[in-house]
Specification:
With 358 residues, the chain is of the alpha+beta class. Helix content is 35%, strand content 20%. The protein has two domains: 77 residues, no CATH class; 192 residues, no CATH class. The radius of gyration is 26 Å and the shape is flat.
Length: 358
């Protein structure tokens, strides 16, 4: 199904001029927010390279958008009422990010925080499972001859499926839920990226291969009782929270100022194992979310982000001298943030380790 069509330039084919789209004799008016300074500034300062028409299904209705591909770097967004910049980015300040399948830990010289990626996503996932069960019940009741007596699907014969009106209606609701989920994740990731870049523009992160983490393990293992362990890893969690999308958004925003994310060497850096006090590498199990640094108990992900913030220029290991200079400030911010999380009446993911605090 064709969902988009675009031209080669803004001089022929699909053209945008004076808030109108012209295409093969069609004249399509374009609506946009009158107070949107970003649109006005973009049209005034940049040249349109070509146009793209996009069709989306929103709340059961076909909605058409025009995407204008401009040259140059997009202008910074402003607040309509005051004209001030919406996001104030700080330059030449370091940030360490330890990102996982569902959580992110961020450390800078002024702020420390750990949070779940797209925190409201589990509510949408719950609605999705409910609609999928409803679809399955409807399909079984409408096509009873396609199932065996034990409710398993018949094999070896060609099956014909009949979809009821209620089934088609529920399927549209599921499609709308998928759209809302994708839009919500992209919106929250964009807001989080702006929050992170407001702390600094030197972003240090480990090289992560999320595709590998999403795959099932190949090795078959057994537990103490002799039963086979599950081969599942983090595929479902990565699909729900999209950590790679956040990294891409941050890198894209840094690209506007001709910068990029500093990706350290995961093999040599070993942020989850290094202890800057003893200058040794100590292996930890996955369920151990806290580590002993000197006489202090520190959250593992936040400490990894702290080590990444103090990376050497060669991105191979951390700078122990920098760690010693900034550890006191980090520890004060760390303890305050953990105390704030403890006061919140909210359930946090087990990977954050908040419940392990005594």
């Amino acid at each position: 199904m064709l969902r988009s069509v675009e031209g080669k330039s803004n001089k022929a084919g699909i053209r945008f001029k004076e808030n109108m789209v012209y295409w093969n004799g069609l004249t399509l008016p374009v609506r946009f927010r009158k107070q949107d300074l970003f649109v006005k500034e973009s049209l005034a300062l940049h040249t349109i390279k070509y146009c793209r028409l996009v069709k989306k299904m929103i709340r059961g209705n076909h909605t058409f958008y025009v995407q204008l591909v401009m040259d140059g770097i997009p202008p910074a967004k402003r607040i309509p009422s005051t004209g001030a910049f919406r996001h104030a980015y700080q330059k030449q300040k370091r940030i360490g990010i330890d990102i996982g399948p569902s959580t992110i830990a961020v450390v800078s010289g002024e702020t420390v925080f750990i949070q779940q990626l797209a925190p409201e996503e589990p509510l949408l996932e719950k609605q999705k499972r409910r609609l999928l069960r409803k679809l399955d019940r409807s399909r079984r009741s409408t096509n009873p001859n396609n199932f065996n007596k034990d409710d398993t699907l018949k094999h070896g014969v060609k099956l014909r499926w009949t979809s009821s009106k209620n089934y088609q209606k529920t399927k549209k609701q599921l499609k709308e839920l998928y759209r809302k989920k994708a839009s919500y994740i992209k919106e929250t990731h964009g807001a989080l990226a702006n929050k992170i870049l407001s702390l600094g523009d030197e972003v240090y992160i480990e090289t992560m291969h999320f595709k590998g983490l999403a795959r099932r393990t190949k090795e078959t293992k057994t537990n103490i009782q002799g039963k086979f362990q599950s081969k599942k890893r983090f595929g479902k969690s990565i699909g729900h929270h999209a950590p790679a999308m956040l990294v891409e958004i941050i890198n894209q925003k840094l690209g506007y100022t001709k910068q990029t994310i500093q990706k350290v060497n995961t093999i040599t850096f070993r942020a989850s194992q290094y202890n800057h006090v003893t200058d040794r590498y100590e292996k930890k199990k996955l369920h151990q979310r806290w580590c002993q640094i000197g006489s202090h108990l520190v959250q593992r992900d936040l400490y990894s982000a702290f080590l990444l913030m103090n990376s050497e220029p060669n991105l191979q290991n951390t700078n122990q001298d920098l760690c010693n200079k900034t550890f006191t400030t980090f520890l004060a911010l760390h303890n305050q943030h953990i105390e704030d999380l403890r006061q919140v009446k909210k359930t946090f993911p087990l990977s954050m380790g908040i419940k392990q605090i005594k």
